[in-house]
């Protein structure tokens, strides 16, 4: 986690993905300009965003699997 970045858990999924897109644009700019100090900072921030997105995706998948348990007894695909 980047020391100057706040908690991402308070953001909605839309806000999280929007900010991640902004970080990616800034990363591209840093690559193009060769600003390696900025690049390393943005990479740390980007990793934090990706970890939060992955955490949310994993939780959503687990929730979907829990909700589909009753359907496994009803649907029999052969």
Q: What share of residues are in beta strands?
A: under 5%
The helix tally amounts to 2
Percent of residues in helices:
over 70%
Give the termini distance in whole angstroms: 47 Å
Shape: elongated
Low-pLDDT stretches:
none
Number of beta-strand segments: 0
Structural class: mainly alpha
Order of secondary-structure elements: HH
- Mean model confidence by pLDDT: 88
- Tell me the Rg in angstroms: 18 Å
Please outline the major beta sheet. none
Task: Provide an overview of this structure.
- With 78 residues, this protein is mainly α.
- The chain is 77% helix and 0% strand.
- It is elongated and about 60 Å long.
- The model has no long low-confidence stretch (mean pLDDT 88).
Features:
mainly alpha; single chain; 2 helices; 78 residues
Describe how the helices and strands are arranged.
Elements: H1 13-33, H2 36-74
Helix pairs in contact: 1-2
């Amino acid at each position: 986690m980047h020391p100057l970045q706040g908690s991402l858990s308070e953001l909605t999924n839309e806000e999280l993905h929007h900010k991640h897109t902004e970080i990616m644009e800034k990363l591209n700019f840093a690559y193009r300009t060769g600003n390696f100090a900025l690049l390393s900072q943005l990479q740390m921030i980007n990793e934090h965003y990706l970890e939060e997105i992955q955490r949310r995706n994993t939780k959503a998948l687990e929730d979907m699997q829990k909700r589909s348990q009753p359907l496994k007894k009803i649907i029999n695909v052969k």
